From TrEMBL:
UniProt signal peptide: none
PANTHER family hit by this protein: ZINC FINGER SWIM DOMAIN CONTAINING PROTEIN 4, 5, 6 (PTHR22619), ZINC FINGER SWIM DOMAIN-CONTAINING PROTEIN 6-LIKE PROTEIN (PTHR22619:SF0)
Protein name, UniProt field: SWIM-type domain-containing protein
Record organism: Ciona savignyi
Keywords associated with the record: Metal-binding, Zinc, Zinc-finger
MF annotations from Gene Ontology: zinc ion binding
Annotated ranges, domain SWIM-type: 106-144
Length: 1057
């Protein structure tokens, strides 16, 4: 063992300034001085590493330290010498700053005190003023690893005391001759000696840069505030860049690590907070997601600072005053929706959380840290929990048991603030105490879950009793809380389990007594700690909780749940953990309103599909029945349910009255994360579906659950594809008919969900259902619940009657005929449901099925009479019938279309003009009766002179009318006789009205066009026996009425006389 002198020197060098040693003892032997100086140098390479970069967990940010170590190991350190508390040396860097990247020598100097670097200098350009450059790292590592290779000397003041006057004069003159640049300074000091009133003569002694720190000097590692602020400012201004954002979060990790070792953690946190508030106006923080995450971390760290067990009253008061000033800053963001505050119960001498009574607008992200100022560490039961020697001081605490049934301590405080205590202990280096408190909190969570389960079971069995409310932390649960309580507990316990064999020698000065911990860092077995961490994480994630209204808080809830599940997946499950998993799953399924997997949950509670998916996969090899029960129960997403309490069946309504709900309030379901939740629901459904392959009853339950709970048609569509792949991926085997039927059922569900529209993938979905149906074979489908009439009469019918389908299904002629008849029946129904869109397609489908064709035709006629088909579609149908030689039916439909028509007086280019001409030819080919009927309708429906005259000329032309044999013949009719006489009179009247209408607002540029219109009118008038005289009277009337338009009348006279 080392001698007592060595041990004493190590302890004194780490805790006592050298000035105190000098003043306490008149004479200190030189060997003792050298030992103190030797052990005052930093001893741990991790401390050096911590001050080389913002973070050292990743290789990218650890490059400076690794380069420094490489230099130290490669013999790059030259002339190392330690004079008192000053270390200097030359570092030969082959990748230096010389020309052409030639090697350079860098002068490095370091001062230190009490195992901390107080300052460092290097003439390179790599240092940023905040952390060590690689040359400083190299010298420090070299000194730690090779202390005997470094020349060791006492402080220079001790050496000077041993010199005579002549030696001191010679030393001074040699220094001045070798360093002539300091001659002015030397002369200035010499002049001060000659002045009796100078400050040098008034002070005893002289400064010694190698003598270490004094009484008033801070005992901390060197950190330059100015450089730190500049660095933080640049990171904040560039926070939109991912690299800068990552460095900000690395800085948070650095602060957390520093808090365990020295006071620079709180100091760096202060600089960061002040600079963020100062730069607030320069950045649109509300649009920067980095801000929210950063403020969450800052708020938690300040809680840890406030709860530092080492803090005295004055230090704590200063911190709280600083937090109050920051909270009043307009740039300090408001607190999110996880709202609690802290009050102190003076009668019990302990603290607890209560629901926030003040408005959220009055609180900021730092309010929780201010609330933590009322928390104390002097509670008797808390001291008992943190002490390694436990004594039962009292059975109950505030109405709750202080100890569990097996005699282990509990801590009945709001879980988030209790976990904040755990984090504070851990952040300040009290690892053992943080584990003890974490275990007590985890044990309390477990006891509350079990007691809540028992209360629910008792109230559920005795329905006459009033519902008993279940104790809870708050409506929002623990996952996603800004203080991350479950993550703190899990991380504390698993870290303790991993590092359970490392000893700790920390001295604890928290309470009225002092404990020197020579025990192992964590005295509980690794398995027990892992079990408790695993259990508390399961209970926390499985807790029923309300979705916050704030969009960022919603995203954080899902992110935290994802992170916790990843932590659960990182654990290797042994038999003990499997049993815990089974017990917790059963507890959650039967746990009532406190559980997110219970039988009934609040409509606004957060779905926990990802957690259920984890439980399902982890427990599947051990309890298949339990996991399927849990998975099917977890498929729900109640926020999308449309069932109101008034619409519930009586039995369910009675059960609802007996159900004590965790969340007593609701708000409109404006969830910004609904897409992520639906994706997680799909993942769970896919897992259930693929696991249930081969089990008909389970598959039926899964399909029913999907149909009942999933509202995203795209995800159900994808599930159908998954089922189809599972059915057909069996190489060399016949397709699984059960899974094919599942795929068909899900495809049908998709079409039911989207039959009213709402997705651009509808066409793809219809095609997919037809694919599934043809893969299975002949099956009966109620088409109108799945397809629109247009889809049924086009895509579905066309695919069903295609030759490829018949070949794929190996249909014989009789089966083909039966299938075709069914398609025709569907076509008839489509025509009835949507004649406008489906009538023509239905006629096409039923071409070879006479009875069905006639039925569709009668549907068209009936629909035209009821005005369910517009005229353009009727004309199209009529042309189709005419092409098939059904002239009479074609005329009937065209006649109905004409009755639906309206052509105003000035619509010369009406789209139905050609249809009217064609209909007139068709009527003329059938006979005078049909033509007379049509003329009467045209006269009644058409007011346009041009259209009327065109129809009239069609009937009177020498080659006009379509003959019954399909050819055109000479059947021109006289316009002044029946049946064209009404048409001629209507045409002439229309021209007269149109001429007067045009002249009422005609302009000179339209005169030429008007003369052409008059010419066409004259041609129509001339079809009448007295048409010439009638047209002359019309012109005379125009000259009388419009005599002011002399230019126009001159044009008319010159053209028509």
């Amino acid at each position: 063992p080392p001698p007592l002198t060595e041990i004493a020197a190590k302890v004194a060098a780490a805790n006592i300034p050298y000035q105190l040693v000098e003043e306490r003892y008149n004479r200190v032997p030189e060997p003792v001085v050298l030992k103190l100086i030797t052990w005052s140098f930093p001893r741990c390479e991790a401390d050096i590493r911590r001050y080389t970069a913002l973070a050292y967990a990743t290789n990218e940010l650890d490059v400076t330290f690794r380069k420094g170590v490489t230099l130290a190991e490669s013999g790059a350190i030259r002339q190392p010498v330690q004079i008192g508390f000053h270390l200097s040396g030359i570092v030969h860097d082959k990748s230096g700053e010389g020309s052409n990247n030639s090697p350079c020598n860098f002068n490095v100097a370091v001062t230190f005190d009490r195992c901390k670097v107080a300052s460092s200098t290097c003439n390179c350009q790599f240092g940023d003023g905040i952390f060590f450059c690689r040359h400083v790292v190299a010298l420090l590592i070299y000194r730690i690893r090779n202390p005997r290779k470094v020349k060791l000397r006492a402080p220079i003041s001790d050496t000077l005391q041993k010199l005579t006057r002549d030696q001191l004069q010679k030393l001074t003159q040699y220094l001045l001759s070798r360093h002539a640049n300091v001659l002015p300074t030397a002369q200035e000091i010499a002049d001060c000696f000659s002045d009796a009133n100078s400050s040098i003569n008034a002070v005893h002694g002289a400064p010694d840069p190698t003598a270490g720190a004094g009484f008033q000097d801070e005992n901390r590692w060197n950190l330059d505030d100015r450089h730190v602020i500049d660095h933080i400012r640049q990171l904040i201004l560039d926070s939109a860049k991912q690299a800068s954002a990552n460095q900000l979060f690395n800085l948070i990790s650095k602060i957390r690590e520093m808090m365990k070792r020295d006071c620079n953690g709180a100091r760096l946190l202060t600089l960061l907070t002040e600079e963020i508030l100062r730069q607030g106006p320069n950045i649109q923080w509300q649009h920067n997601d980095v801000c929210g995450k950063l403020w969450d971390q800052i708020g938690l760290l300040w809680i840890c600072v406030v709860l530092n067990p080492r803090n005295d009253r004055d230090s704590k008061t200063k911190v709280l005053e600083l937090l109050k000033s920051w909270s009043k800053d307009p740039q300090c963001p408001p607190e999110d929706s996880f709202s609690e505050t802290i009050t102190t119960n003076t009668s019990r001498g302990r603290t607890c959380f209560h629901e926030l009574q003040l408005s959220l607008k009055c609180r900021t992200v730092l309010s929780r840290a201010l609330d933590a100022g009322s928390l104390r560490w002097d509670d008797a039961h808390l001291k008992l929990i943190l002490s390694p020697k436990r004594r039962k001081s009292g059975r109950f605490q505030g109405g709750f048991a202080n100890f569990s049934s097996d005699g282990k301590p509990l801590w009945h405080e709001s879980t988030p603030i209790a976990c904040a205590r755990v984090e504070a202990l851990r952040s300040h280096g009290y690892a053992n105490e943080s584990v003890r408190l974490a275990r007590a909190v985890a044990r309390t969570i477990r006891e509350n879950a079990i007691s809540g389960f028992k209360l629910y079971q008792n109230s559920h069995q005795n329905q006459k009793d009033a519902a008993v409310p279940v104790k809870r932390n708050n409506g929002y649960g623990l996952v996603g809380h800004p203080l991350n309580p479950i993550h703190i507990l899990f991380d504390t316990l698993t870290t303790a389990a991993t590092n359970g064999g490392k000893p700790s020698f920390k001295t604890l000065h928290i309470f009225h007594f002092t404990l020197v911990s020579w025990e192992l860092t964590f005295m509980y077995s690794q398995k027990l700690l892992r079990k408790e961490a695993f259990e508390v994480c399961l209970l926390g994630v499985g807790e029923q909780r309300c979705m916050p209204s704030n969009a960022r808080a919603q995203e954080k809830v899902l992110f935290c749940e994802k992170m916790l599940i990843e932590q659960l997946e990182s654990l290797t499950l042994d038999d003990e953990l499997i049993q815990v998993l089974r017990d917790v799953t059963t507890l959650l399924i039967e746990g009532g309103p406190g559980s997110g997997l219970g039988k009934r949950v609040h409509r606004e509670s957060v779905p926990i599909h990802s957690f259920a998916n984890y439980l399902f996969k982890a427990l599947l090899p051990y309890d298949r029945k339990l996991v399927f029960r849990m998975g099917l129960q977890a498929m729900r997403m109640t926020v999308l349910d449309d069932v109101a309490p008034a619409e519930m069946p009586p039995a369910e309504a009675a059960q609802e009255e007996q159900m004590p709900l965790v969340l007593p309030f609701t708000y409109p379901a404006t969830w910004s994360v609904i897409g992520d939740l639906e994706a997680r629901q799909y993942q769970l459904a896919s897992t259930l579906l693929q696991t249930a392959i081969g089990e008909v009853m389970l598959l039926r339950l899964v399909v029913e659950s999907v149909q009942r709970n999933m509202r995203n048609a795209s995800h159900v569509f994808q599930l159908s594809h998954d089922a189809f792949k599972c059915a057909t991926n069996q190489t060399g085997a016949v397709a699984d008919s059960t899974m094919l039927n599942v795929a068909l059922q899900l495809a049908m569900q998709v079409l039911r969900m989207t039959i009213q529209g709402g997705t651009w993938r509808r066409t793809e979905m219809v095609g997919w259902l037809v694919t599934c149906a043809t893969e299975i074979g002949l099956c009966a489908l109620t088409w109108y619940t799945l397809f629109t009439p247009v889809e049924a009469s086009t895509m579905v019918a066309g695919c069903v009657i295609s030759p490829n389908t018949a070949m794929r299904l190996n249909l014989d002629p009789r089966e083909r005929e039966e299938l075709y008849h069914n398609v025709c029946q569907m076509a008839m129904q489509c025509a009835v449901k949507d004649p406008q869109s489906c009538a023509l397609r239905s006629l096409t489908l039923c071409e070879t099925y006479t009875s069905a064709f006639d039925a569709v035709y009668h549907v068209i006629v009936d629909s035209s009479n009821k005005r369910r088909i517009d005229s353009s579609q009727l004309f199209t149908i009529a042309r189709y019938l005419d092409q098939r030689g059904l002239n009479s039916q074609a005329f009937t439909v065209a006649h109905a279309a004409t009755r639906r028509l309206r052509v105003p007086f000035n619509h010369d280019a009406h789209p139905a003009a050609n249809d009217l001409l064609w209909t007139t030819q068709l009527a003329q080919s059938l006979g005078m009766t049909e033509l007379e009927e049509l003329v009467l309708v045209i006269v009644n429906k058409v007011r346009c002179a041009s259209v009327l005259s065109d129809v009239l000329r069609t009937c009177t032309s020498s080659i006009s009318g379509r003959m019954p044999n399909g050819t055109y013949g000479n059947r021109g009719l006289r316009a002044d006789r029946v049946p064209l006489r009404p048409l001629l009179e209507a045409s002439m009247a229309a021209y007269v009205n149109t001429i007067h209408s045009k002249l009422s607002h005609i302009s000179p540029r339209h005169y030429t066009e008007f003369i052409g219109f008059l010419n066409k009118a004259r041609e129509t008038f001339l079809l009448a026996p007295d048409g010439h005289s009638q047209f002359g009277r019309l012109l005379a009337n125009l000259k009388t009425i419009y005599k002011g338009k002399k230019k126009l009348l001159n044009l008319v006279a010159s053209r028509f006389g």
